[in-house]
Write a structure and sequence with these properties.
alpha/beta; seven-stranded parallel sheet; five-stranded parallel sheet; 15% strand; globular
């Protein structure tokens, strides 16, 4: 069965980094493998290239202002739906979907829930009024949705508890990884040689946006404590963000310039080598982690990954090995987990076990089949109920 889906996104990866945009980008690669044809409407400053050039419409530039973006998106969606070849609408961002509800008519609406937008804004310092308005926009969209796709049990529970969504409308589908891209022939030493990293030191890597809830301050403090018993240990932090200068100053203040390196932005093509070169990855998130794609990517590269017990992170790794889930987000517990790895106090899955686990759960086609099933169920529900969306 071929399904034609209009995907309403936020931006196109890698022009606009971030978890939501990465998931959206990956869907355009994976869903065609299982007979789901996608067209998209997003905002941005550069059109997509190559095979996606004719499938994505840039409704408005990022510099156009919020009102202009929302109006332009509405017009783009109306034009797409007027062609009458769209079976279903999939929403990835409540802000750009809220103004469209009344015009969707009988089209089923599936919401890909990437996280509580209002709560994330609160955690980043937004005003109480802004948080409330975002929550109301989310509620408007979610009240009209036929089905929801979430990345984890943690985000399913957020939908139920914070937005009052019935569990029967929610399906858990994990994030996807391009397994082939992360399966490398390089040994760990060869990967280090390519990157110019030390050959004789144990190295942890963290791939994170440099923002507050990623827990990098705790990770930096943990490395200082770790080096008391493992003086050769190193940490490489890959990513960019507003905390870059503050984190660099923290590293200087504790005298760890030789053991902790901020790598800055790392291109998507270099990520597999980064993971492969490390003895272990660390994901130190302190709040609002719906899945943790980087954990799945690390496993696909054959590198075990330690995660904090936050949100959906434990779900990514716990069935592979409970030892991969740290006790808490505190620096002392992060240091203990890293020390246990270096002193071989825990048995971590090896390269082959990590990869096999990632293939069975996070391979693109495996995930795409699950998403297609949700879309088909939404279509079946519409044909039965004949429900319409009216504002």
């Amino acid at each position: 069965m071929i399904v034609q889906v209009l995907q309403l996104g936020m931006g196109w990866f890698p022009e606009q980094p971030g978890g939501l945009n990465r998931v959206y980008y990956d869907l355009f690669h994976s869903l065609p493998l299982v007979g789901v044809k996608c067209r998209g409407v997003i905002t941005g400053d550069r059109p997509a290239e190559g095979e996606f050039k004719d499938l994505l419409e840039i409704a408005a530039p990022l510099s156009g202002g919020l009102v202009r973006r929302c109006i332009s998106i509405r017009r783009s969606v109306q034009r797409a739906l007027a062609k009458n070849d769209i079976d279903l609408v999939a929403s990835h961002f409540a802000l750009y979907t809220a103004g469209l509800i009344g015009g969707l008519s009988s089209k089923p609406l599936v919401v890909h829930f990437h996280g509580p937008w209002a709560e994330e804004s609160r955690s980043e310092g937004a005003s109480s009024l802004a948080v409330k308005l975002k929550y109301l926009l989310e509620k408007r969209v979610y009240s009209r949705a036929d089905r929801f796709i979430v990345l984890s049990r943690a985000f399913r529970d957020v939908l139920i508890q914070q937005y009052g969504i019935d569990e029967s409308r929610i399906e858990i589908v994990p994030g996807q990884v391009d397994i082939q891209r992360f399966t490398m022939a390089l040994t760990r030493q060869e990967a280090r040689e390519r990157l110019g990293w030390p050959m004789d030191r144990p190295i942890f890597v963290a791939v994170r946006r440099l923002v507050r809830r990623m827990g990098l301050e705790n990770l930096i403090a943990a490395v200082k404590e770790l080096r008391i018993s493992a003086p050769d240990a190193m940490l490489m932090i890959a990513g960019k963000g507003p905390l870059a200068e503050e984190l660099q100053q923290r590293i200087r203040d504790i005298g760890q310039q030789d053991s902790i390196k901020l790598l800055g932005y790392v291109s998507d093509s270099d990520l597999p080598t980064i993971y492969r070169a490390a003895d272990c990855s660390v994901v130190p998130t302190t709040a609002l982690e719906g899945f943790g794609l980087i954990a799945a990517e690390s496993l696909a590269a054959g590198t075990p990954v330690l995660v904090t017990p936050v949100g959906g992170l434990p779900e990514v790794v716990e069935e592979l090995s409970p030892a991969l889930v740290m006790k808490s987000t505190e620096a002392a517990d992060i240091a203990d987990a890293m020390r246990s790895v270096l002193l071989h106090q825990v048995v971590l899955p090896d390269e082959n076990q990590c990869r096999a686990y990632a293939v069975s759960r996070y391979d693109r086609k495996v995930v795409a089949e699950k998403i297609k099933k949700v879309y088909i169920n939404a279509l079946a529900g519409k044909s039965v109920t004949g429900a319409k969306f009216n504002s």
